[in-house]
Amino acid sequence: MSETKIGELIAALRKSNGYTQQEVAERLGVSNKTVSSWETGASCPDISLLPAIAELYGVTCDEILCGKRLPANDTQKNQQSRREKALALLLQRQKTNIVTLCWISGGLTALGILLSMLVGYAALESLIGFFVGTIPLLGSAVAAAIVLHRIRFAIGEEFQSANAERVSATADRALLWILCANIAALAFIAPHATAPVHTGLTFGWEWLGTELACGAGGLFLSLLVGIPLYLHRRKKILLAAAAAEKETRIAAAAYSANELARWKYKNILLLLFLPIAIAAIITLCLVTTASQFVFNSVYSTNYVFDTLESLSALSGPFAEREYTLVSEEAEETDRVAVTYFFADFPEEWRKYYRTEDTEGGTLVTIYKYRFDIQFQDGIASHEFYAYDYLWQGGIGSIDAIGNRFTDTDGEEIVSDLTIFLYNVVSLYDQREAEELAGKQDILVWSAVAVGLAGAGSLAITIPVYRKKLHAFCRK
User: Which helix (DSSP H) or strand (DSSP E) does residue 305 occupy?
Assistant: First the structure.
């Protein structure tokens, strides 16, 4: 850099523009002696004044520093090269910011799910766990929206170059997936919101399967809405590029790619994804419904009696109708099947007893149980007929304890008698359990059939999709 050449160029530019040294000094905010020293080569302009001098004389800073006018092509090339380098550096920085944002948002989403499960399953506060888990999810979505908005602002016009368009598309895709992931996570933890206050869900396949089904449904619905919105936004950007006649060839190619993406989305959704998704959702619903039919065999109940008379008291149809003993048949060492004949058995009691219709009446079978009473001086065996309708499903075990003594007349007296009937179930409950088990089998096999049908549809739809794709690309 030569001070003399710079001074000569500045003097020539001033004279060609018809300025005096005083006018230049006033415009630049310096003294006329300073301008004179520049033109004589005694000093150089301060670097902070170069843009102002270049704008005043209609030249570039490079020309002032070189001390001569540069060819127009060289100047434009240098400026274009610097702009491209600066833009490439900016775009690369924004790509890094997008990747970092995705990791941070993904971590917040995972944290929300983890907190919700820990509070809901471990601390047994599912409702609180739902609200605690929602906070990181909202933070993830809001942070993504704010940061990506700043990234788009830094990029500027998306259609200024192909690289800028790609980075803008990457930012839009990142926002789409972050929002869809957070919606799916919110749906995943939603079952915790159904639990009453200060209670927790039971960790197991029943609730975990429900959460997975809700999460899959939330992801499917969010993609179903989000992908068309994403494609619509990209289409608007590409149409704006074509209207502005900037990067026309790039915009046209990108527009064609966008149209192909829209076609693929529509046909993949209708031909491939939608049938499989519907089959998967139906299968999950059937399996989840079937899991609700897990019947605890036995809603068992325990009974306590203090007299043998109360234990063998008549109840139900035996207290309402006349009957006749038909047979007794031992089934086990402590249980005998007893069959009675009723000429007129009440219809409302049929579902609670083992009945068999015969000519002229109904046979009803109950059990007679044998059990031992533990006395302080030994064991005594007794038996009773299980007339109560709540006992017809069976009695698991019988324990009895008491005291006995002989009075002055030689009669045995039993006192403080306590009889325990354990794991007593109703025949009605057993029949209901069998019915529910049958429904469960039907639902499970239906789920298997629907799943196989959904998977089998791929064998038909994939060739159809490929044929339609080739036809579209040939247009």
Answer: strand 301-305
Q: To which H or E segment does residue 332 belong? A: strand 324-332
DSSP 338: E
CA angle 330, 390, 331 (to 5 degrees): 10
Distance CA 305, CA 418 (A): 6
Half-sphere exposure of 130 (CA within 13 A, CB side): 19
- 350-376 pLDDT per residue, tens: 989 999 998 889 999 999 999 999 988
Q: Which two tokens stand for residue 457?
A: 């549809």
How far, CA to CA in Å, does 280 sit from each of 215, 218, 393? 12, 13, 39
pLDDT tens string 229-281:
877 777 776 666 655 554 455 555 555 666 666 666 666 666 666 677 777 77
Cβ-contact 228, 265 below 8 angstroms: yes
Q: CA 347: distance to chain centroid?
A: 50
Question: What is the Cα–Cα distance from 461 to 271, expressed in whole angstroms?
Answer: 6
In this prediction the pTM is 0.45
Residue 92's alpha-carbon distances to 85, 96, 99, 106, 169, in angstroms, are: 11, 6, 11, 21, 14
Cα separation, 191 vs 362, whole angstroms: 50
Picking from 434, 199, 172, 401, the residue whose alpha carbon sits closest to that of residue 306 is 401
**In terms of DSSP H, where are the helices of 292-422?**
308-311, 317-320
User: For the chain, first and last CA: distance in Å?
Assistant: 60
Torsional sign, CA 315, 318, 319, 321: positive
Neighbours of 59 (CB within 10 A): 17
For the purposes of burial, counting CB atoms within 10 Å of the CB of 289, is it exposed (0-12), middle (13-18) or buried (19 or more)?
A: middle
Strands, E assignment, 386-439: 394-406, 412-425
At 226, list the tokens.
Answer: 């989000």
